[in-house]
Amino acid sequence: MGQGGGPAPAGLPAPPGTSFASDNAAGVLPEVIDALAAANHGSALAYGADPWTARAAALVGGVLGRPDAEVAFCWGGTGANVVGLQCLLRPWEAVICPDTAHIHVDECGAPERFTGCKLLAVPTPDGKLRPEQIEPFLAVVGDEHHVQPRVVSITQSTESGTLYRPEEVAGLAEVAHGNGLHLHLDGARLANAAAALGADVASFTADAGVDVLTFGATKAGAMYGEAVVFLRPELGRDVRFVRKQAAQLPSKMRFVAAQFEALLADGLWVRAAAHANAMAARLAERLAGAPGVVVTRRPEVNAVFVRLPSAAAVADLQAWSFVWAWDVARHEVRAMTSFATTDADVDAFAAGLAAIAARHL
Ligand SMILES: Cc1ncc(COP(=O)(O)O)c(C=O)c1O
User: Fold this and answer.
1) What is the rounded distance in angstroms from the CA atom of residue 107 to the CA atom of residue 258?
2) Residue 281 C-alpha from the chain's centroid
């Protein structure tokens, strides 16, 4: 039986011990489990009126270099994006984002449903929006026949495994702010970006002009929970009402907060992401030159995009060790690493993938 659930093609090595399907396929960092157990003593007031939440919010603000930031913990990433965006928008307004954005393609229309707003999705070669792609939408500002652009939303690191440098974020912020728009950042993989850029998180968020962001914990090794952060606190004045209506207010919030504390207190989240990124780099190295295998982009974070010779090769790979197809027409798949991926997992996955590709030449 392969990891894909069906019979694995015969004659292949054993599949790796961890899945390359998603960083969400990983378990939870032991330090986070310990923090959850430690928080499980006695009573604490619900809905965030507990000491864990106060400490974790302070840590989030501190990491972002904005101690006065408004921090609202949520259950999950889609919810955090919805809550953050809803605080910025009225129903006739719109969000400009890359057409690969999670808010556009992977949230079942939740942002549109909850905000009532249109997403204006723009094609990009690499998941990264450019300032000049905002400008065409500005021509309709003030015209009642058109939705009014109000938010620019980017993802860091992107769904395509790429990164914005701090100056690229600042360039987007300049155009957005110069035209009365807000800059939103989906930071589901903020830790991977911080590790890859080797930079202070503030340098590519608060200091670069981001107004609101989703601060991801799940992919960094938490069990669940993300935060919406308003770097300009006045933008978050309604967040508590919005979060509750969006069903994103965890009652036993101390358990979300305890996970953030474990991740942020001593930089664990970035160390864990640095490991994930290193595993992706190792995978790309191991695959380089394998016949029939094309690594389509040098991995910048923890995603490796690989083209195989045919759809049948992709199906064999999925049956042996499941990964998601990224571009079906090009036989391209996405392999993702996490804090839990080991050197041995990478080597096993690379060997099996190369063997499958060779069979389909
Ligand atoms: C870029 C991005 N944003 C947000 C999310 C959060 O999604 P979820 O609602 O599954 O926690 C994900 C998860 O895959 C993601 O990749």
Assistant:
1) 26
2) 18
Query: Rounded to the nearest whole angstrom, what is the distance from the C-alpha of residue 296 to the centroid of ligand 1?
Result: 23
Our answer on whether the CB atom of 76 is closer than 6 Å to any ligand 1 atom is yes
Three-state DSSP class for 187? strand
User: What's the pLDDT tens digit per position in 112-171?
Assistant: 999 999 999 999 999 999 999 999 999 999 999 999 999 999 999 999 999 999 999 999
Regarding beta strands 332-336 and 324-327, do their DSSP bridges make them parallel or antiparallel, or are they unpaired?
Answer: antiparallel
Ligand 1 pocket, mutate which of 24, 157, 186 (most atoms under 8 A from CB)? 186
CA distances from 200 to 62, 208, 232 (A): 11, 11, 19
* Domain made up of 30-265: CATH architecture: 3-Layer(aba) Sandwich (3.40)
pTM of the model: 0.97
Ligand 1 within 6 A of CB of 205: no
Contact present, 323 and 350 (Cβ < 8 Å) = no
78 ligand 1 Cβ < 6 A: yes
The Cα–Cα gap between 245 and 239 comes to 10
> 41 CA to middle of ligand 1, Å?
31
Q: Does the beta carbon of 264 sit less than 6 angstroms from any atom of ligand 1? A: no
Q: Say if ligand 1 is within 6 A of residue 155 CB.
A: yes
Residue 3 neighbours by CB under 8 Å, 6+ apart: 15, 19, 320, 321, 322
Q: Where are the domains of the chain?
A: 30-265, 269-359
pLDDT digits (tens, 9 = 90+) for 255-269: 999 999 999 999 999
Strand partners for 309: none
30-265 and 269-359: identical CATH topology: no
Q: Assign a CATH topology to domain 269-359.
A: Aspartate Aminotransferase, domain 1 (3.90.1150)
223 Cβ inside 6 Å of ligand 1: no
Cis? peptide before 43, omega within 30° of 0: no
